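User: I'm writing a tutorial on reading structure tokens. Could you give me a worked example: one chain, its sequence, then its tokens, then a sentence or two explaining what the tokens reveal?
Assistant: Sure. Here is the example chain.
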Amino acid sequence: MITLKNYGIDIENIRGKIYHYKKQKIAYLVTVTFITGKQKEVIIERGASKTLSQIDELLKCEKPDKIQLEYFKGDSEKRHDIKIYPFQDVSESSQVQAQPQFQGFGEAEISRIVDDRFQERQRKEEYEQLKERVLELATENEEFQDTIDELETENEQLKTELESKKQVRYYAGMLGDILESFGIAKSKVKSPLASLMGVTEEENKEEEIQYTRKSDPVNETTEQQEEIPTFTFNEEGRNEIITLMSEYLKHVNDQILGEVFSIFSDIEKTPTLAKELIQYLHSK
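And here are its predicted structure tokens:
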């Protein structure tokens, strides 16, 4: 029975080539033509790998002199490759007789070897490309990791600085309250305290305007009144001040605690007494 082997055609090799291009999303099609004398008959027109099985079925009824294979890559009308395979007698008796008269490789065998070499070379090129891409991705990954490490280090430093700043602001505010309780006006220690607490220069200037004294001795009463700032706080500021006062009172002795409580009691009865006390302390 005549098969594709009589023409030196390796059907699996052709299917492998079609599959190779299919992985690259490229249509690789084959046109099969039977040639008998000068007559040509197209058997398969741009067929895929599944249609190649029809050739063996047709060879059961026909015996062409040659089989022509035309390859088309993609949607192009131009042929990518063309090969012609003549009929060969591959029976066991002909093989035994042909052995002592070996004349070299036939056209089909040479074509197969060339195809194998071509595929091997393509595989090597693809392997080299993949290897280069892997190296590129590895380098990019290292760069990203370095950036992440730098950002994490910077984040830790910022956290530490923020925590330190909070502690300094807290104790600096407490120190101002303590000094004020001893009769030292905050306006005199405002600049160093502001530096410790991290207050900006603009905030500092606004507070200086509120604490600026007039030098005219005739307006002494007006001067003392203008030294008393008008306090306005948001909810967070109120809670912070209350916390500072509470922390301060926890560490004073019983004598000062009693005196402060007595002052608070008088202020609660007469709220205007607070301004009079501040004016008195400023005069000191």
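What the tokens reveal: The mean pLDDT is 77. The longest strand covers residues 28-36.
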